[in-house]
Amino acid sequence: MAMKVKEVAELVGTSVRTLHHYDEIGLLIPDETTEAGYRLYSDDNLEMLQQILFFKELGFSLKQIKEIVYSPTFDRLEALSLHRNMLLEKRSRIDQMVETIDKTIKHLKGEIHMTNEEKFAGFDFSHNPYEQEARERWGDEAVDRSNEKLGRLTKEEQQALGERMNEIYRRLAEMRHLSPQSQAAQEAIKDWYEFLNNNFGHHYTLEAFKGLGQMYVEDERFTQNIDQFGEGLALFMSKAMAAFADQQKKS
After folding, report:
1. What is the DSSP string of 20-77?
2. Phi, then psi, of 109 in degrees rounded to 5
3. SS (H, E, C) 81-140
4. Which residues are registered as beta bridge partners of 41?
5. Could you report the per-residue pLDDT of 2-42, keeping only the tens digit for each?
6. For the structural domain made of 3-70, what CATH number should be given?
7. Residue 20 to residue 32: CA distance in whole angstroms
């Protein structure tokens, strides 16, 4: 039985505006539209919407989802199997990180002692949640090269790499009240530029580095991740990266 757009929105827990947007961009086109202009969604439409929301939950952009679900080779059962495996993997990593948080709380209270290895359990740099976006922006070759380099690292080396990254984030967070163009900020952001270029098998041009900074504020997932070290850090880094790139081009 066909459902109206408001009914679908209430069923799914999304907004009517979102469903209208999906229709406008050709992602989810209702099977019927009445003479009065009301959208009517079939069971097939709802199944497609489920697929769309699964991909969205896993971090795919609407553009990527559209390319996938309308590909001639798209298979719903295969896609559901993929969704299940990815969600199980995600749940496993989250469970591990929750356990690390619980131990850290006890450690800070003096109830237990954590080793350095235990402090970083659950952080896995072999899985990049932004890989799909990276492939779209920079191409398969650059991402494959980065993954290959990271894959050669031992678990201890990956943990050390993660701690070095966090050190730079913390250092920048401490100075985010300063001007992004200040000498201290520019020295710290230079370390970030060199860290990225020396450890991930991909050379960032100054323009690409500046563009990466823009992603920190344009993509809310980047913003939320970076701002864990201090509210406003993503914006501060974005401005500092832009200033660094512009200054280096002049010199």
Report:
1. HHHHHTTSS--SEE-TT--EEE-HHHHHHHHHHHHHHHTT--HHHHHHHHTSTT--HH
2. -80, -5
3. HHHHHHHHHHHHHHHHHHHHHHHHHHHHCCCCCCCHHHHCCCCCCCCCCCHHHHHHHHCH
4. 3
5. 899 999 999 999 899 999 999 999 999 999 988 888 999 99
6. 1.10.1660.10
7. 14
Spatial neighbors of 112 by CB under 8 A, at least 6 apart, are 103, 106
Six-digit token string for 99? 């356990």
Closest CA to 48 of 21, 29, 64: 29
CATH of domain 130-249: 1.10.490.50
Tens digits of per-residue pLDDT, 144-177? 554 555 555 577 777 777 888 889 999 999 999 9
Compute and round to an integer the Cα radius of gyration of the chain.
22
Q: How far are the Cα atoms of 137, 207, 224, 230 from residue 235, in angstroms, in the given order?
A: 21, 17, 11, 11
Contact assessment for residue 40 and residue 33, using Cβ atoms and an 8 Å cutoff: yes
